[in-house]
């Protein structure tokens, strides 16, 4: 099983809304990542969690708030977003010791109106 | 710093043509190298990988060889199909726990019948 599951697949939210993106994996991976991808661009790293602790924050605005409640789950809480935050948000995971490759979910297509 | 450079697209080919997408990298130490593929509206899928010099990664008819002397990891396929139409990303990892991938800008491949 090399599956990373993201929900929802699509999300439309207003600039005053609060919403959350969810990511789940059952591969025993202890590193999990959030990436943001704009159209025709490569993914941009937002956050990295290692052993459920935030290890990298790529200077992401505070309107994005990550959370890792356990080793299988990763959330991204969204609040007061701007239209330019509309993008594909990708979750990924990797096994810290067995190999560096990351496995990606299908992404959440977010539209901020 | 670490970086990945890949040929700009789009690459347009006829079915059964030979494919090469060039990728070169700059990195300290001995990174692992990857090719990911992204089909329209989907997340990234790991296509192949190589973790040390002279390794050849292969999958679904695609191949790439880790060339340390030329710092390259070019993607090749002998006979492309319409279903190969997608965006291809070359990436590297520094092989440290919980470090994220560094991506090239992506190359769009369009195959016509």
Topology:
The complex is a heterodimer of chains A (113) and B (113).
Chain A: E1 4-7, E2 10-13, E3 18-25, E4 31-37, E5 44-50, E6 53-57, E7 64-70, E8 73-79, E9 87-94, E10 103-104, E11 108-112
Parallel strand pairs in A: 2-11
Antiparallel strand pairs in A: 1-3, 3-8, 4-5, 4-9, 5-6, 7-8, 9-10, 9-11
Chain B: E1 3-6, E2 11-14, E3 19-21, E4 23-26, E5 32-38, E6 44-50, E7 56-59, E8 62-65, E9 75-77, E10 86-93, E11 102-103, E12 107-112
Parallel strand pairs in B: 2-12
Antiparallel strand pairs in B: 1-4, 3-9, 5-6, 5-10, 7-8, 8-9, 10-11, 10-12
Overview of the structural elements:
- The complex is a heterodimer of chains A (about 110) and B (about 110).
- Chain A has about 110 residues and is an all-beta fold.
- Helices cover about 0% and strands about 55% of the residues of chain A.
- Chain A is built from no helices and 11 strands.
- Chain B has no helices and 12 strands.
- In chain B, the strands form 3 sheets. In chain B, strands 2, 5, 6, 10, 11 and 12 form a 6-stranded mixed beta sheet that branches. A 4-stranded antiparallel beta sheet of chain B has the order 3-9-8-7, with no helix packed on it.
- The model of chain B has no long low-confidence stretch (mean pLDDT about 95).
- The chains are: A mainly beta (about 110), B mainly beta (about 110).
